[in-house]
Design brief:
alpha/beta; Barwin-like endoglucanases; binds molybdenum atom; Rossmann fold; binds ligand MGD; 803 residues; Phosphorylase Kinase, domain 1; 4 domains; 7-stranded mixed sheet; 6-stranded mixed beta barrel
Length: 803
């Protein structure tokens, strides 16, 4: 297909123009054991060899969405560069992308289907053929269906694998992993709607329009590395960038101000900002009245919102069931309750009124009362930051707009009660109206990648849908969900569960575990059968993956044939369907699916974009009609029942959280007696070197970073540690060991590790052995349930080996 058309480089020009040719050879050497001899030959030995340039896409999960240009020589991936087929703004690629050359040929790749020999978890396997493997898979699936029904199979998928239709085809459960990345969203979403992810912020290209940008618990310059230019463009344009982070992160080091608060206390900071803004009357009454539930009346005694059907004044047929959204406000002109959307009303924001013999007050009045104890002095102590710093932050946010209030998913999100932080943040936005316009937004900048297009889904026969699993995957160990078979795609058995020793016991009780992955990572050891998949660079067809995001449609293109005995995702999915006789519902190959999903998309953003047009345009085209950066909620219509920001969480009033109330974490809080045994908080953050556990097998990156735990030099000294000592990190849940290094960037009462290390990166154990799997008591009140509080973990560190 288009491969030949893209063969623009001759061998000679390639060798002449780039030193990376030598790097390509060096990498092949590194993976020599796994590769045929040809790619190791000197360049001159194979003069008839063919070179071609392939334009394709890189990973999804790091938020980069990079388009890349690959040089393929003699069927070997030889060089990766940013694509020159996209506008200059999008021409980029980080060292993770560049190092794919080495990563794809990593000696840690799974090379053949494997079958467990010995005990589960020991990690001993024998090589089998694909046919043998698929026979076992088919018979184990049928056995489980016969014994317990289709819902007994659960597909646990990391973000990179592309097996979209498998759960529907097998009628298996999938996707019940919302304990990750939704902690703060749980607190934001009831107010703005949308379903628990809270990522409807403005595109980060809009950051240049902001005067103040607050980044709380997000290390943007590493976790959205490819959009760092938006950060620096905003700074150059005069925005003041303020980072709230217990540690001196890379992003803090480039910001205008760093606010180092105690881990897990962000909620206290934002609660105090609300109080300070209210005390100083820096709120925007016009916005509050028009776009929020601030004027809605609450029955003071019960905490219930008043509804029209219940008041004789507004509804002569009193006693009739009220519409759930028939909220009332107090009209200051007629001095009576009227529907909130009565255009003639001038609603009160403050005061207490008698309605039907009971006391009622606007939500804002209630907010003022519930906030009273959250003074800036109180928060200064909770968060261990100066009171003036909090007061200045509140003033800058409320009066120094347009302002962004951004949160991350990797820091304060992963504690036991981040919904309180989210609720406080959305109230700050509701008070100030810092949303829905250039330079002002609330949310996770992950939603700041611009426009994404909806692609067409392949039509499966009616009724072919995933099973509904009533229990969240991270609770399977505690609550019987009727799951007996796990299909693990990627490294989820390590990544999606805290407290790994508990996970081990649960996995041992399962009937069958199939692991489908690229690398010899921790999830492999738990499996009964292992199937090796290709990287996104290898394929059996020319084009297979389509992505509609970051203002573009991107299409993958095959660079090289599948390595070893690995097969691309689609082919493995097809074989699994085939093992139970269900493959006929699938398109014949991944290219047919890709073509279908583009050519049948009816999203206006895809207008004029076809599969063939994409291929002609080096596999990337900008979405149609986008001129300006996307602004979230530009029409100030929120997907809530009233279309307003509904900041009063009535269903949560029984736990006191109708308006946000401070609550300590489960482990990490001052005064916890556990601190005597385990005085250090274990912070787990992401890094520019990896995407979670992915890229761990890339030696080109490993030369810049070795797996370790980091402590403040003061904490090192207290424990008699020096750089490079091997330490044991432990608590009641478990232990792991690895080298320790001192780092001034780390808070003295924390230890930091880049999350997702494989056990083979550690001296012993796995960091997930110690992480906290506590479930907040308010679980049932939260849209996606309580988050997995990975960072709400206390540990102690002691030397096991060193000088
Ligand atoms: N390179 C790379 N990029 C990625 C990923 C990756 O693995 N690698 N993963 C992607 C995914 S899935 C996610 S979820 C996002 C996450 O992206 P981020 O939210 O940026 O995640 P982290 O870098 O883990 O953590 C953010 C910061 O929170 C700080 N922090 C820790 N505890 C607290 C606290 O209590 N309060 C505050 N205010 N800050 C705290 C940490 O020091 C860290 O600097 O990144 C995405 N991007
Ligand atoms: N302790 C602790 N645990 C955490 C977190 C934490 O902060 N602390 N963070 C959590 C968060 S936010 C997230 S999002 C999760 C992330 O957890 P995962 O989504 O599991 O992330 P990765 O480890 O990057 O998994 C990617 C997997 O995909 C494989 N892969 C890469 N490309 C392809 C491909 O093209 N096809 C196939 N089939 N496979 C491919 C890689 O080999 C790897 O196994 O981890 C969570 N776990
Ligand atoms: Mo994540």
């Amino acid at each position: 297909m288009s491969g030949a058309r893209n063969s623009t480089l001759t061998r000679r020009s390639f060798l002449k123009t780039t030193g990376a040719a030598a790097a390509g050879l060096a990498c092949a050497g590194a993976a020599g054991a796994a590769l045929s001899g040809e790619v190791l030959s000197p360049a001159t030995a194979n003069a008839a060899g063919e070179e071609k340039t392939v334009y394709t896409l890189h990973q999804f999960m790091c938020q980069g969405n990079c388009s890349i240009k690959c040089t393929v020589r003699d069927g070997h991936l030889a060089m990766i560069e940013p694509s020159d087929a996209v506008a200059p703004k999008y021409q980029r690629c980080c060292m993770k992308g560049l190092s794919e050359i080495e990563h794809v040929y990593s000696p840690l790749r799974l090379q053949a289907p494997l079958k467990r020999v010995g005990e589960r978890g020991e990690g001993n396997f024998e090589k089998i053929s694909w046919d043998e493997a698929m026979e076992i898979v088919g018979s184990e699936l049928k056995k489980a269906w016969d014994a317990y029904g289709k819902g007994s199979v659960y597909i646990s998928a990391s973000n990179e694998p592309r097996f979209g239709m498998l759960a529907s085809i097998l009628g298996a459960g999938t996707g019940v992993e919302p304990g990750i990345d939704r902690g703060i969203g749980n607190g934001v979403d009831p107010a703005i709607g949308g379903g628990g992810f809270a990522s409807c912020t403005n595109e980060t290209r809009d950051w240049v329009n902001a005067k103040t940008i607050i980044l709380g618990g997000i290390n943007f310059l590493e976790t959205s590395l490819m959009r760092s230019d938006d950060f620096f463009d905003a700074k150059r344009a005069g925005a003041e960038i303020i980072v709230v982070d217990p540690h001196f992160s890379t992003t803090a080091s480039k910001a205008n101000q760093w606010i180092p608060l105690k881990p897990g206390t962000d909620g206290a900071l934002y609660l105090a900002m609300i109080s300070h803004i209210i005390d100083n009357r820096w709120y925007d009454e016009e916005y509050m009245l028009a776009h929020t539930s601030m004027p809605f009346l609450v029955d003071v005694a019960s905490g219930q919102l008043l509804r029209g059907g219940k008041t004789p004044e507004t509804d002569p047929a009193a006693g009739e069931a009220a519409e759930p959204t028939d909220y009332l406000v107090w009209d200051t002109v007629t001095n009576r309750p009227v529907p909130y959307d009565d255009p003639a009303a001038v609603p009160a924001l403050e005061g207490t009124y008698e309605v039907n013999g009971a006391q009622a007050a606007p939500v804002f009045e209630q907010l003022k009362a519930s906030q009273r104890e959250y003074t800036t002095a109180w928060a200064a102590e909770k968060c261990d930051i100066d009171q003036e710093v909090i007061e200045q932050l509140a003033e800058k946010y409320a009066t120094g707009g347009p302002a962004y209030l951004c949160f991350g998913y990797g820091g304060s999100d992963k504690f036991s009660n981040p919904d309180i932080q989210g609720h406080a943040m959305v109230i700050l936005t509701a008070l100030t109206g810092q949303i829905g316009k250039p330079g002002a937004a609330l949310g996770h900048p992950g939603g700041g990648q611009g426009y994404g297009a909806a692609l067409a889904a392949w039509p499966l026969p009616e009724g072919m849908v995933p099973a509904e699993i009533p229990v969240r995957a991270d609770r399977f160990a505690d609550t019987d969900a009727g799951v007996h078979v796990i299909i693990s795609l990627g490294n989820t058995l390590q990544q999606y569960y805290a407290n790994m020793n508990k996970t081990r016991t649960w996995l041992d009780s399962l009937d069958f575990i199939l692991h489908v992955g690229m690398y010899d990572e921790d999830s492999v050891a738990f499996a009964d059968v292992v199937l090796p998949v290709c990287s996104k660079f290898e394929d059996t067809v020319e084009h297979s993956i389509v992505r509609g995001g970051y203002n573009h449609i991107q299409l993958s293109q095959k660079c090289i044939d599948p390595l070893f005995e690995a097969l691309p995702d689609y082919d493995v999915m097809y074989r699994i369907a085939q093992s139970v006789g269900l493959e006929s519902v699938l398109p014949a190959d991944a290219e047919e699916l890709a073509r279908f999903s583009i050519d049948n998309a009816d999203d206006p953003l895809v207008a004029g974009i076809t599969f063939d047009a994409l291929v002609k345009n080096n596999n990337t085209m900008p979405l149609a009609g986008i001129e300006e950066p996307r602004i979230g909620f530009a029409d100030l219509q929120f997907p809530t029942p009233t279309g307003r920001m509904e900041i009063y969480y009535e269903p949560q009033r029984h736990s006191g959280q109708a308006l946000p109330q401070w609550e300590e974490n489960n482990e990490v809080f001052d005064g916890n007696p556990l601190l005597e045994k385990y005085p250090l908080q274990l912070a787990q953050t992401r890094t520019r070197f990896f995407v979670h556990s992915h890229f761990r097998g890339a030696a080109w990156l490993a030369q810049f970073y070795t797996g370790c735990i980091e402590l403040n030099p003061q904490a090192m000294e207290e424990r008699g540690l020096i750089d490079g000592d091997i330490v044991e990190v432990f608590n009641d849940r478990g232990t792991f060991s690895c080298p320790v290094y001192g780092n001034n960037a780390i808070r003295p009462t924390s230890a930091r590790i880049y999350e997702a290390a494989w056990s083979k990166d550690c001296t012993s154990g796995n960091p997930q052995n110690v992480t906290n799997d506590h479930v907040n008591e308010r679980d049932a009140d939260l849209i996606t349930g309580a988050p997995i509080p990975f960072n709400d973990t206390l540990v102690e560190v002691r030397k096991v080996q060193g000088e």
